[in-house]
Write a structure and sequence with these properties.
- It is a single chain.
- By secondary structure, the chain is α/β, with parallel strands linked by helices.
- It has two domains: about 160 residues, Quinone Oxidoreductase, Chain A, domain 1, CATH 3.90.180.10; about 130 residues, NAD(P)-binding Rossmann-like Domain (Rossmann fold).
- The chain is about 20% helix and about 25% strand.
- It contains seven helices and 16 strands.
- Helix 2 packs across helix 3.
- The longest helix has 14 residues.
- It is globular and about 55 Å long.
- It starts with a strand and ends with a strand.
- The relative contact order is 0.16.
- The chain binds NADP nicotinamide-adenine-dinucleotide phosphate (NAP).
- The site of NADP nicotinamide-adenine-dinucleotide phosphate has 25 residues, from helix 1, helix 2 and helix 3.
- InterPro entries: ADH-like_N (IPR013154), ER (IPR020843), GroES-like_sf (IPR011032), Lipid_raft_assoc_Zn_ADH (IPR052585), NAD(P)-bd_dom_sf (IPR036291).
- This is NADPH:quinone reductase.
- It comes from Marinactinospora thermotolerans DSM 45154.
């Protein structure tokens, strides 16, 4: 089968489009014929070796953490799934494998694919959806009626955090560049503003807020300024670097390390099918162009969430 993998860490040039053996499902695993995967910023960090110390991987490594496809074979002791089921999954980061014609997924990572959108577009959901879910509900412990600032709200994770927060009954202030504003209003954000002037402080955007969620890569000094946007007793949650706590004001902080969770993903799929969250896919690219996708992401030229078509 065809797959995109790297044999050594490096830039996008280490990605090779090559023939590899079709994997065989072991106990508790499912073999999926992949319709699509999607690009996530962490794919770039893994390929570059930036996570090698904290998360050792075996080389060669087939890239692609997201997966949408069809079950073709069940390993031993797998129950509740059938050949032909359409599924989505976030694959384990340390073994991944989605950028291939066939991929192995732990059975517990799988959820039924949404029925109301194209199967390939469902590949935009797993990692970003789980990151949004875990940030909003596990780290921030978001409650109905709370005020929430989402920084980087127009991005892949931020767009889902905004929608999950609105769906949960929170009042959302969404921060991102103007080209995202109409879409963010459409998600139900109460207030949509351009990039923060951190020196101006929270009052300039209607804060402080009970919850601040950050998805923007900021310097340690800028992250420290974000603490000022959190109301006394509130919480800061970040997917892009830790926001310092402020014990005097009882402001706590938490950072995300996203994990695969089939039950949470099943819940996210139900929200997609109920029209309570919408996926914004900015581009579709064929598998053979994945190295170019990595290169464009590194150069800041990707138009947004990019689905990579395998089938
Ligand atoms: N630790 C984890 O488990 C985990 C999991 C998932 C994601 N992440 C990280 O979370 C971050 C977000 O991921 P993503 O997939 O959502 O990335 P993304 O789609 O690139 O989203 C980032 C968003 O931030 C916007 N932005 C950039 N600079 C800004 C600024 N100064 N003010 C306001 N908005 C700004 C971008 O706008 P433009 O598009 O206009 O540039 C974009 O809409 C990444 O750093 C990713 O690595 C971490």
């Amino acid at each position: 089968m065809k797959a995109i993998r790297f044999h050594e860490f490096g830039g996008s040039e280490v990605l090779r489009y090559e023939d590899v053996d079709r994997p065989v499902p072991g106990t508790g695993q499912v073999l999926v014929r992949v319709a699509a995967t999607s690009f996530n910023p962490v794919d770039d960090h893994i390929r570059a070796g930036a996570l090698a110390e904290m998360m050792p991987i075996t080389l060669p490594y087939v890239t692609g953490i997201d997966l949408a496809g069809t079950v073709v074979e069940l390993g031993a002791e797998v129950t509740g799934l059938d050949v032909g089921d359409r599924v989505v999954a976030m694959l384990p980061l340390d073994s991944a494998g989605g950028a291939a014609e066939y991929a192995l997924a732990p059975a517990e990572s799988l959820a039924p694919a949404p029925q109301t959108i194209e199967l390939v577009d469902a590949a935009a959901l797993p990692l970003t959806g789980l990151a949004a879910w875990q940030t909003a509900f596990e780290l921030a412990e978001l409650k109905p009626g709370q005020t929430v600032l989402v920084n980087g709200a127009g991005g892949a994770v931020g767009s889902l955090v905004v929608q999950l927060a609105v769906d949960a009954g929170a009042h959302v202030t969404a921060v991102d560049a103007p080209q995202h504003a109409d879409r963010l209003r459409g998600y139900g954000a109460d207030r949509v503003v351009g990039p923060l002037d951190l020196a101006a402080g929270p009052a300039a955007v209607g804060g402080p807020f009970q919850v601040v969620v950050n998805h923007v890569r900021l310097s340690p000094e800028e992250l420290a300024q974000l603490t000022n946007y959190v109301a006394d007793g509130g919480v800061a949650a970040s997917t892009a670097g830790p926001i310092p706590e402020n014990p005097d004001r009882k402001v706590r902080s938490a950072s995300l390390w996203v994990r695969s969770d089939g039950a949470q993903l099943t819940d996210l799929v139900a929200k997609v099918d109920a029209g309570r969250i919408r996926l914004h896919v900015a581009a579709h690219r064929p598998l053979g162009e994945l190295a170019a996708v990595h290169e464009e992401a590194a150069a800041g030229r990707l138009p947004g969430k990019t689905v990579v078509l395998v089938d």
